[in-house]
């Protein structure tokens, strides 16, 4: 579980790095968050294959409906947050900013009602029918579990599967009942996983309901072959884990207020599997093995993605360094360099100002319009002949028009004065402050 927490922290760091590469501010709470899919686990399998029971095992509580009456008819997303401060019996449901402690049975019955009322007879519409839960518990790793309807249902098409499983970092949990292990090569869930994840770096095979195959030598031999990577040659090379059915529900029913009931159930599950699958690797048996295998696959995906992120961040850093150099970072180490930067910035400002005037860009057209239209007309309307000698008035008027108007003249004068002040500061050693003031 500790390894999964470390991966959760690393996934968040990688999300922040991706945000930086996209020019987002990861520290801005108001900015849209780019969700990471490293910690997503999508269950694929037929109806009654045991998908929901497998996810319940990861959650540590029988939250998801199972069996025929609880068949998943719409995507269920369970966003888990591990809280070690809670007891192993506690489940906290989070809705927006509010938290409410609930029981597993209450959640399960609520989901059953929503599934039966909301999607009966209808076709699956992906996220339009999605049921979302955000839970805090001490028994689960920080994963986002996605329980899809059985892929052999008519309502489920490839578009729904790709919508959830097509993300190139989500872990695919292909759930195969032990009784169907002999026919695993024809499994549609496995074929879909191979189409989505051709190299098998994010796929985990889960053999469920092994306890139901106890005593069937042929089935047990097939299961042990898969766990030992000795299955059919045409199968993708993926890791397999074996589980018994309804282990969480059994542990919950048998617990009598003990805080260690779930840990006891995990150990009992592993021992039971060892007795059934005597020839299988012991590190591939039980819920603990499943969590470790998922963590290993997440680590693989991160190793694939980290070099690309580092390369992108290095490129971004080089762009920043080039921009700083262009603005004179290396030049301001000496008075001469500071003076050169100040002059360059003055030239850029003057060029931009003249471009606005000559092209009318921005508000430059207003200055031109005032000079060519309103200003001369208003000068002529002034009753200056009543108060001054007419010849002197004509001289002032001509001079004012020639200088583009008193306001423009004042602006040019201010620019020139500021430029002189900047150069004076540069020459006296205050160049950096001058540049900051001018910018």
From TrEMBL:
Any GO molecular function: GTPase activity
Q: Name one Pfam family in it.
A: Dynamin_N
Listed InterPro entries: Dynamin, Dynamin_GTPase, Dynamin_GTPase_CS, Dynamin_N, G_DYNAMIN_dom, P-loop_NTPase
Q: Might you report a single GO cellular component term?
A: cytoplasm
The alphabetical list of record keywords is: GTP-binding, Nucleotide-binding
Identify this protein by name. Answer: Dynamin-2A
**SUPFAM superfamilies found in the cross-reference section:** P-loop containing nucleoside triphosphate hydrolases
- Which family does the UniProt entry place this protein in? Belongs to the TRAFAC class dynamin-like GTPase superfamily. Dynamin/Fzo/YdjA family.
């Amino acid at each position: 579980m500790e390894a999964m927490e470390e991966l959760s922290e690393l996934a968040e760091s990688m999300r922040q790095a991706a945000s930086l590469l996209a020019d987002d501010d990861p520290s801005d709470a108001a900015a849209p968050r780019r969700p990471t899919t490293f910690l997503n686990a999508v269950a694929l399998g037929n109806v009654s294959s045991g998908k929901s029971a497998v996810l319940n095992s990861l959650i540590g509580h029988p939250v998801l409906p199972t069996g025929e009456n609880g068949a998943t008819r719409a995507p269920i997303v369970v966003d888990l947050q591990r809280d070690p401060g809670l007891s192993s019996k506690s489940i906290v449901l989070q809705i927006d900013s509010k938290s409410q402690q609930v029981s597993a049975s209450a959640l399960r019955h609520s989901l059953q009602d929503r599934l039966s009322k909301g999607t009966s007879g209808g076709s699956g519409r992906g996220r339009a029918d999605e049921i979302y839960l955000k839970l805090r518990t001490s028994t689960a790793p920080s994963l986002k579990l996605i329980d899809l309807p059985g892929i052999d249902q008519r309502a489920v098409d490839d578009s729904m599967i790709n919508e959830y499983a097509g993300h190139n970092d989500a872990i695919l949990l292909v759930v195969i009942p032990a009784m169907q292990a002999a026919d695993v090569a024809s499994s549609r869930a496995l074929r879909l996983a191979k189409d989505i994840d051709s190299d098998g770096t994010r796929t985990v095979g889960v053999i469920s309901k092994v306890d139901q195959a106890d005593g069937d030598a042929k089935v047990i031999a097939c299961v042990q072959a898969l766990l030992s990577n000795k299955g059919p040659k045409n199968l993708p090379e993926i890791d397999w884990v074996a589980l018994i059915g309804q282990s969480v529900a059994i542990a919950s029913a048998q617990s009598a207020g003990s805080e260690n009931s779930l840990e006891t159930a995990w150990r009992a599950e592993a021992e039971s599997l060892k007795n059934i699958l005597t020839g299988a690797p012991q590190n591939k048996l039980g819920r603990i093995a499943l969590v470790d295998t998922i963590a290993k696959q997440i680590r693989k995906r991160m190793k694939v993605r980290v070099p690309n992120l580092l390369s992108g961040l290095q490129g971004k850093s080089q762009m920043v360094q080039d921009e700083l150099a262009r603005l004179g970072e290396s030049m301001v180490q000496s008075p001469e360099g500071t003076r050169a930067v100040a002059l360059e910035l003055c030239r850029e400002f003057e060029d931009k100002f003249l471009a606005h005037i000559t092209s009318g860009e921005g508000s430059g057209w207003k200055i031109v319009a005032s000079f060519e239209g309103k200003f001369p007309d208003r000068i002529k309307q002034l009753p200056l002949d009543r108060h001054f000698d007419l010849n002197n008035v004509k001289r002032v008027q001509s001079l004012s028009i020639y200088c583009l108007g008193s306001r423009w003249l004042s602006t040019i004068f201010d620019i020139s004065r500021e430029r002189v002040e900047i150069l004076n500061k540069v020459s006296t050693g205050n160049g950096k402050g001058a540049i900051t003031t001018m910018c």
